[in-house]
Amino acid sequence: MNRTCQTCQRCNHYTAQHSRHTPHSTFQVTVTMKFSNIFCKKYEVNRLLVYSKRYNIEFLKSLDPIIFLFYLTGLEIVLPSSDLRRKNRLYIQLRRCVRCVCFGILVFPFFFQFFWFLALPEKKVEGALLFAFALQSTAWFSIRKHRRKLVRVLKQIGQISQMLQYNADFKRKKWMISLYCIFSYSLIIGYLSAYFYSVNRILDFEYLKQSILVTEFKISSTYMPMFRDIAICCYTLGNSIPVISITALYIYLAAHVKSLFDRITKRLRHLKDDSNFQQVLQAYRGLVNALNCMDDIFSYSVFILVLNSMVGLFRSTYSLVFLTKTCFKRNFYYCFSVLYYFIILTSVIVYASETIQAGRRCREQVISLPGMFPHRYLELKILIRKNFKGELF
């Protein structure tokens, strides 16, 4: 080792002093020096393990804002960094009750939307909203189905970060993903606030006061607009949480995997010794396997989010251009929906494409590795062709 630890210095000092006062053989001095070197190596290995484990835990802790959003949707993801097991039973039962209440709030607008589909005259608009809500629910159920695989993927990515000693500023990433979620949800709140001053809300109230539900079933005309407002609030605020949580988790993992691919590419380009490539190739293979698992987990849900965002962006843009000519101030809430769907759509597409490009660059660097070490060209060529050439990208 380049730098001798304090333990080795103490061992060497003790050996030198002991050899002055007592006659030692060369064999005894050699055994003492070997013992000190073994102890020093063990100390260095333990220090590196603790150092790497710290980054593993920091990566998992940086996911806390996203895990909290999933918890609000009724989906609980328990990671090794979570201290849920240390809590008492009362705390765990309270968390379960809160999770069930939040899940009920998400399910509640679905039945009301079906009710508005039967009651209101605009069947196409209400039916489209009902269909969109059902599709987004299937995306959430897809994530719930693969939650155990998701936990394994997060652990695997954390272990790869540990293997590569990826010392990123996870606190800064945690704040950035938190700001992304807050900004996206603030657009939803702005959309809902502007909706209360829109023309569509006034027209819906006028129709509900004269509908069959009020005349024949003798339901008070003051309650129907109130139910309509409650349903719109629950639908808008509750339906956006699964969308934001899935999108935030996807782009965060995509950005982190891209950084790991770039780090592997950089280390392969600057390899000077052919004995250090095995760990890098092992990290590359584990990262490709993790990316394949991510594709299995997020393929359907992200497809639904992209499809829903494209439809929502088209409808909002069309309404903003053609339906707000008479009174733009009364339909200003379409601006918030356009910005919201645009952010969801572009963030998913951009981060996914950047990750794929980083993976392809890393694969090209792995394939060109035998040319960097001509004396081991045949061995590396067989190894890469057997284990790495047929993988993703």
Please bin the fraction of helical residues. over 70%
Number-wise, the strands total 0
**Secondary-structure element order, as H and E?**
HHHHHHHHHHHHH
**Structural class category:** mainly alpha
Per-chain topology:
Elements (H helix, E strand, L loop, with lengths): L5 H16 L4 H36 L2 H9 L16 H31 L3 H23 L1 H18 L5 H26 L3 H11 L2 H4 L7 H47 L7 H46 L10 H35 L9 H11 L6
Helix pairs in contact: 1-2, 2-6, 3-10, 4-5, 4-10, 5-10, 5-11, 6-10, 6-11, 7-10, 7-12, 10-11, 10-12, 11-12
Organism: Caerostris darwini
Keywords: Membrane, Transmembrane, Transmembrane helix
Protein name: Gustatory receptor
Provide a descriptive summary of the structure in words.
The chain crosses the membrane at residues 100-119, 177-197, 297-320, 332-352. This is Gustatory receptor. Keywords: Membrane, Transmembrane, Transmembrane helix. The protein has 393 residues and is mainly α. It has 13 helices and no strands. The protein has helices spanning 6-21, 26-61, 64-72, 89-119, 123-145, 147-164, 170-195, 199-209, 212-215, 223-269, 277-322, 333-367, 377-387. The radius of gyration is 30 Å and the shape is elongated. The model is unreliable at 1-55 (pLDDT under 50).
Describe, in short, the structure shown.
With 393 residues, this protein is mostly helical.
